[in-house]
Fold these 4 entries.
Entry 1:
Amino acid sequence: MKRPIKWLIFIGLIVFSCAWMGSPLINFGKFPVIKLPSETVFSIGPLTVTNTLITTVIADIALLTFAFVATRKIRRGSPDAEVPRGAQNIFELLIDMLYSLSKSVAGSKAMKVFPWMATIFLFVLFANWTELFPGIDSIGLIERAHEGTGYPKQEIVPGFLYTIDQGQGKEITIPATASQSTESSAGQPEAYQVLPFFRTPTSDINTTLALALITMFMVQVFGVRALGGHYFYKFVNIPELKRGGLGYMMFIVGFLELISEVARILSFTFRLLGNIFAGGVLLLVMAYIVPFFVPIPFLGLELFVGFIQALVFAMLALVFMNMAMQGHGDHEAEHH
Amino acid sequence: MEQALVNAIRYLGAGLAIGLGAIGPGIGIGILMQGALQAMGRNPDASSNIQTNMILGVAFAEAIAIYALVVALILMFVVK
């Protein structure tokens, strides 16, 4: 029972590394096309499905499957669950680490914020780690470039498998403003771009902005739940204003708090986006410069960066939620 | 030719933005880690608490580099 699983993992690892080693063989000498916005793969009515959305759903399914497999014995009430093994062991390790972290930061209020930060951590972790798979950012539909730079296409398997040829073809730049580009560029040779099926969700600004907005919204909700209406005195400090003197100063500081809340949304968004986007570019460029062996340590680095960024996101969410739940008095006591 | 010049200046600007913008956070994170490691060495019992605050501090220092990265990304991909 145990032996086939081990062999399966071993074979999986070999296939994984072969795919990483093999992909530069096809792409050798072709500098990757780097694009910041995600691309629409197809659309259902008004709903456009981008490649990052597809990968988000895949990451979600992977996470749900993992959770389902890990907790199977517990839900069955099996006596085996007392001593965790395999996936359950990993899951319990993760949850234990996250819970002790939230315990050390939030103390008695740990159970309130723990579900939020753990959910954010697990989702961001799985979303970040999708960038490690070969084929992300590089396999997709080939289509005519509407704007930007396109390249001539080259057949590998006629009628089925193509690659864009950046080695010999010259760049064809179509101005973004020309909406009637189909007519004007008719004389030019055709320019093609690859539209990837999969792209790391957290390298899309929409995903990270949504996560940041949800987090900061929940920070306000936790603050109001813990302190009631007094929470908003943090921003518009009327009691201090009534005291006069230094109170005026505190009133102005309240507005600075308001600005810092907005700045937190921005820094949440761009920290995750910047790290993961730059990581993806790093992996592509390293595979371009030296296709063999050299990208391997960078894969390890990205494994680490993905984990650390998920941890930082979750921890900042935890700390902000904890700070919002503390009264203004406690907040000042921290500063001495 | 005109567009090529604009592109050249754009790439130069993006490179300078992230290059100069990374100096400050780099020094900051170095100092921060030095302090945290010294504190952990002197008082290993407090290391979990120090680690929490250290990662927070690193995240805030790193945010500045991320702003520079955003400027560089805008110069590279958004400005035409």
Entry 2:
Amino acid sequence: MSALLQLLFLIFSVKILGEAAERIGVPSVMGEILSGVLLGMLFLNAETDIITFFAKLGSIFLLFTAGYKEVSLKNLKFESITALVPTISQIVFAFIFGFAFGRIFELSFLESLFLGVAFSPTSIAVVLGTLIDLNYLSSRSGSAMLSSAFLDDIIALFFLSVVINFARFNRIPPILSILLIAGKILLFLLIMYILGRYLFPTLFIYAEKMHTREAVFSLVAMIALFSAYLSELFGLHSVIGAFTGGILISEIPLAKLPDIQSKVDGLAHGILIPLFFAFIGFLIDPYALRNAGSFTFLVILAALTGKLAGGFIGSKAIGFDFYESLIFGVGVMPRAGIELVILTIGRELQIINQEIFLALVLMVVVSILISPACMKWVIQVRQRKAGQE
Amino acid sequence: MDRMYGQDNSFSGKNLSQGGRKREAEVRENRGKQSGKHIGFSESDSPSKPRDERHETCLWMTIDELMTRDIVTVQENTPVEEIFSLYGKHHFYILPVVDDKNKLVGIIDLDIVLEILLLCLVPREKHTPVTAIRSLGSTAREIMISHPVIISLNATFKDASDLMMKYRLDHICVIADGKLVGILSKRDLVEEICRRRKMEKLREKTG
């Protein structure tokens, strides 16, 4: 009974607070995290198991829809090698900043590695609204950001799958084990590719002919769960499988019927993903925030400057002017969905402790809050400069 | 394939971007005029078959006899501006994108065009990289949906109506041997049924 009430409360509050966040001009994910914090404060005996379960489904569907709707392998084709430079540069910088930061603060090797991974992803969607409003999407930096966004997530998830496997050793594993891990990842990808190429399309043709209600939609959901499960069998995390599964069915016409897409959206963005964001808030102890000190501040600073510097230097290197490079750097600063999933995985596998987890969640919050504002400011300064000249 | 293009609509295999623009426009005009009497067109297509006798078999007639054949297509490298002006001129909903062998590679529909033209009004939930990249596209290839739902030329009326009613599809591209041969819309199905009902009534009156 109480579990029902708590779920009801969560879904209600994520929508209300999410809306409130949108109204004051920040992405709804802020309000959704806040509703989880509220749940922790209002319900003393929160049904942690049930909420955790829904959050897990949420993280699976977050990555699944990212692959299913957002990533198109077509878009990975870069016009030239030079277009890759800013992307690679910002990822490498962010990773090095994270890793070096961990080493400087004398965290373990694994924790440092994880910080590097956690610093790498980008959520371009956070600044897209600003870019569209200011009509800046078609600029050089705008399109560089967009091509960067896809590669970012894929690289971050790849790093993550490696780190998860390293977690078992807690040091650089022997060379044989590294080969084994690489072999497992490749084998998983190979199996998924074969299934996606030959089995899944056939299954959809049969499902479409079935008289049972919503057979095609169920098949999409089943593929999400199946690929998540399969990747766990291979020692990868379920979300990585879900992401792969999503990409594989993203080019199957029957899986991408508008009708089916909107149903998947309803399940994922309507219920499960907001519950996952709320779960993040639920994991945060609001009273611990008081103790958050210079360490937290430095994590935030390192994570943001890593992206900014990497993006700036990389785009400057291929001939962007000062402001364009700055805009690109700011554009790759925000983190959201995939970043939060990576953080919960780190916490779940006890790679990072509660303090680092909290610092990284705050980093996400700060990056979401300041990136659009910074972006707006830089673009306006640039336009003013251009106007003067 | 010849039976598709051998008639007055030899145009459907050709392309806007391929210099046949003038003829294209003429055909468009014709299509505009014809759009209301598509059935007349298909009757002349197979005059030997007295349709009213096959009323019950309506469900089993192939979509070959129902679909619109004289469709406008664009090629992968057709500029976006040209696509917009096509939509500005004509009342169609989907625009198939074909390669030089008339193989269907994708479709563009009104939703996509609207999203690109009204990017500033797109709801926030659609502020995704995919929408953004599409809005920057300069050719048909970059904005199309590359995985359209298709139906084979031999499929029946029932197959098509199943697909349309189950998944709320309005238009389906018709394919034969991997090549685009026409478009079937809900309207084609409705018009066919209405035509049959009318014939039935007429027959009752006269006979």
Entry 3:
Amino acid sequence: MTRRTWVRLDNASTMFLAARSDADPKVFRMTAEMDHDVDPGVLQQALDATFDRYPLYRAVLRRGVFWYYLQDSDLRPTVVAETQHTCAPIYQADERTLLFRVVHHRRRINLEVFHALSDGTGALWFLTDLVTEYVSLRFPDDPAVRAASGRHGAAEEGGIETVDGRRDEVRHELEADSFTRYFRTREPAAGDASPRSRGLGRFIGASTEKTLTVRGTRTPDNRTRVVELTMSAADVLALARAEGVSLTSYLTALFFQSVRAAEENADAVNTLGVSIPVNLRQLFPSTSARNFFTTVRLEHAYGRGDDDLGAVCRDLDAQLRAQTTEEALGERVRRFIRFERMIVLRIVPSPIKNLLLGLLNRASNRGLTVAISNLGNIRLPEPAASHTTRMLFHVSAVRPQFCSVSYAGRLTISFTSPFTETGHVREFARFLSARGIPVAVSAARVTEEELSAMAPTGEGESR
Amino acid sequence: MKRCAACEVEIEGTWATCPLCGTRTEGEGVPDPVPAVPLEFSRRRVLAMLFFASLAVIVASLAAQLLFNRGDDGVGVLRSIWLGVVALWLVVMMAVRKRRNVAKGTAYLVILLGGVSAYWDYLTGWNGWSLSYAVPATCACSIVAVLIAVRVMHTEVGEHIVYSWMTAVLGLVPVVFLALGWVRHPVVSIVCGVLSVIALAVQLASLRETRHELAKRLHL
């Protein structure tokens, strides 16, 4: 009898377990939109082949006394038509299921992942390989398929999340997380100038200011409200360049402005905070598909000077640059790990640890108005690229959030929220269209009214 | 593709109204890239069902009391437990339902609690404790509670004025009982009456706003 491989859950992932709730099951979805209706049979074949190369994706999550751990399983994934709402819960305590699912609808191939398993970059690798495999099987006679001859590799650049392309022949094993690999060693005692964490506020990096938090009407069945905006990447990039800031900073500032315009009591609380994940692979090269990111928090206090969009995005850009230097990020992660390795915390049983981390999460939520995640500019390898028209991604959210990604010259910004209101998206879209940028909107129906408006046409179900 | 003239955006799918602003869309629909997934449940309906089911149980429980003899020789201590649970359930339910307007919720609770305690007193052989203690104590507490709550929570005058008046006036009801000679132990009723007079004096200070609010609500 062979023993099953297992590995302890890394520290970023543990947080997702503590922070998940009915409205936010901590699931994210990455979508590739094809130029044809997806063939489920072929997709299943492609999934089977891709799955074999990703032992990590075989893992199920189990709870030890002190920690959660990922354990290898014999489960096989099946592609399913989209009959559940987006980002439906994947991990249910005591249910041993795979931590991801592949869903298709019309032209879309969706990969949904429980965030404790992998992050956006890791999932993008999987989806890239899946789509490449799918296209190779679906169009065997395509010249691009013949030329590519089974070489896989995703490369992207730009934005704050960057993946390096050196990953041919990489098997994404169920292996130690990259946090352990890079941050295992104790820091040299000499010149110990590194600030020790003092209290929760320091650890979560919360603001001392009262931060605006958005309230709204919860969706009827806790589903995530998703609205996707598609536009030309070059057009928006030109707007950002005109202000001399990165796309991430520009979009964040515009998000702030939109939230303030849509929120009624925006004037009562002037500080807005945003959480942005930073891919650590760009500084600490890693081929692990497991979570390897940290988040930074930026804020802007309105009503204390120049509040026009340009000034706000330059303010945010400066904060982002300062917080994403190698030293700043390294220090942040080390502090996080030091916290995780505190002996007191280690011997606390996991339900209590969950409770503590949940409280911590709630404390940090109070300092956040919105969250954003920019995956940057993706390039798919051939033959996937020639049949993929659009890439999108979004994540279940406890607060208004957007996830952006650009691919083949098209920027998609997917807004998610636990609330039915779309006022901030409206302001965002109107700002762009007023500047002559054509915006296409796609939204999933959420409220009873929206769904009943759909019923008479009998167009709801498809395959 | 559909188009929203107000937002100046194209809309994928078959939306009759803009998903962003609700304006009627123009143009031909295209196949929706995302499916319309039916609701698993509707929070509003679940809550409504819970509310009406609770209400039915409470009303039935209160009515069922009449099947037993009045006084202690009936179901005895079981009745007190039963009524206690039902009354608590009713209070929690109304408090949750009216949580958005504290002043309104308090006024509702006074009426509910007063009614339930008088009924309870009647069922257990009318010892008069409801009129001597329960009703005046509830009224007195509500007056103080509303006075404090609306100030601490910075409730807008228009939001609470009617209910502030209501709790203040309800505070005079125990005094009426006292005058009618229904009350055996007058202390609590007197305290309540004094508080009520103070509250009314406070309310008189905002008479203009009261008049404005009443004119608005009673507008034909």
Entry 4:
Amino acid sequence: MGKVGQTTFIGLILVLAITAAVSPVFAGTVDSQTLLERTMEYDGEAVIYVGEVIGDIMRRGEYVWLNVSDGNGAIGVWLPAAMAEPVKLAGEFGSKGDYVEVSGVFLRACPEHGGDIDIHASQLTVLQPGFTTTAEVRSDYALGAVVSVIAALALFFLAKKKTRSSR
Amino acid sequence: MKKSEGFNSANKDTLLGFSIEMAAVGGYLILGFALCWLMVR
Amino acid sequence: MSGGKWRSFKTILFYTGKIIVGIGLLMVIPLVTSVISREWNIALCFVIGFGVSTAAGYLLQYLCSECEPRISWTQGMTVAALSWLLAMVLAAIPYWLSGFWLSFLDCIFDVMSGFTTTGLTLIQDLDHVSDGINMWRHLLSYLGGQGIIVLALVFLTRTMSGAFTLYAGEAKDVKLLPNVVHTAKAIWFISLVYLIVGTAALAAAGLSIGMAPYRAFLHGLWVFMAAWSTGGFAPMSQSILYYHSLLYEVITMLLFIVGSFNFALHYAVWTGNRREIYRNIELVSFFVTSTLLVTLATFEMAKLQVYPGVMALFRRGYYQLISGHTTTGFMTIYARQFINEWGSLAFVALIAAMLIGGSASSTAGGFKGLRVGIVFKALVQDIKRLMAPDSAVTVEKFHFIRTQVLEAEYAKSAMLIIMAYIAMFSVGVVANLLYGYPLLESIFEAASVTGNVGLSSGLTSAAMPAGLKVLYTFMMWLARLEFMAVLVLFGLLARGVKRLWAR
């Protein structure tokens, strides 16, 4: 590399270093277990959190609460209603909610929300829309149901007859 | 002490009883909140 | 002789059979819930559970129909213990079939946790659990709570009924203790009122915070049942934190505190004896211990700045302390935060709160306020005796529905049971440590199990060793059954009052 190349290279490194120094620390994608175990460490940090929206999309005026679960834990996400607009489905039994990526500030004891753990989102992306699954009725359970009910009925009548005769 | 006739059904006493319980617990919570407030002052 | 014994045994089995049928019939409730929510396979799980339970129950009745027409008290207690164990296995069947638990032992653990209104859970993927299963979980907790009360009061009335009259003051008022039917009616009436009001309040709160109507209703019902029974199961994995709502939290607190009251107190206050609300030794005891422990904990939390501001301190610090003291187990923080964020004083205060517990003859666990109050007064009495001249006779009184004399045997009985609890707690701590868990978690979880609380530091999980699961199950059962000892105490109380007035 010529002198110009070297200088440019060093200049680029410097620019990157300064940018990194003044930018908020981006923790990269962090999972719920890490966040919940190391709350003090991540308090006030910008994080990227990925997971499934579960339960309810709770609209509170101009804002929305989402509870996002990555399978090991669920964390509440607070965001403006407009930002939450692309979120359509919250997962429950028989459905998987929208799989979202949230960028925001993680708070250990959010002063705005009575000290709870939450993420105030600055950006939300739906990575994969949710879907409902219709489970097929299990034939073995159906059979078991029929058999057990018949047995119960049979024993019911037997017991009633015997009790009546012994009185 | 008044004579007890056992339990009959909803009447003035039961409504009052319910209110007393709720008021007592509500007051207790307010006290708890006041305690927290004292601590952070 | 052997024929008579065999007949006695058959009587026990016969009535056990009846109760088992009852368990099966109760499964219709979650069954209907599943059908309404269109969870067909889950509905089948409950049909099978229903079928197996009722079949087992009728089988017992069929085999043991030649039994005695009347059942003695000892037989009754045996029936209670036996049906408890059988019900534990049968109620676990729908859990097991649903696939939300990793082993049958885990299912049994959760059933016992429900019946004993503890609230620790080994369920997997709670956030995707079916409505039917959630209904069964909360119903078990509710029934566990109600069942204990009914059993306790039946026992109470049996001990105190008969030719038992009380003379109070100079007015010579004759007050007959309510008989079983009236008492049972009262319990169910009071419970029903709270059920309707509580569910409505929570459902309305759910709607106001942005939940869909059907979900708001179901959650309202379930959270009510868990709060009233001081059980602590919650429909979502984040417990009450899921709702992110002060309103929701306040309603749960109102409900679980009132749910931790002695049922004799409810009866008294609801039938005109309103002064009981501030004279009852258990409420006084709870007020004193909770205020003291909350003061200590919040003082440290404020000093260490664990929470920013009064609202946070109230919703995260105070909430967990009261949830622990009433042995409910609802949480508005995450399990690991107890260990990682709370200071030592707050931690210790919470342990003490969990162990002291709620009221006797209620759904709450722990030493019970009655015992703590009695022991304290006995201490005061001893000090007075030391200071008074030898000729003086010191009589210490306490108020529990009636003002009564604190006899030496009450204090002794109370102390013994408290020591039994401490012994069980110690066994729990040691077992946790033996399995390699850290000290704080070991202490915390042992206290939670001993007091049938349900708060967790994260130790309780499906990954726990099987031996520990078995131990916890047994401990939860033993801690809950202590009500037998409570009622022996009440029996002593009854006899004591009789003797006093006979003088």
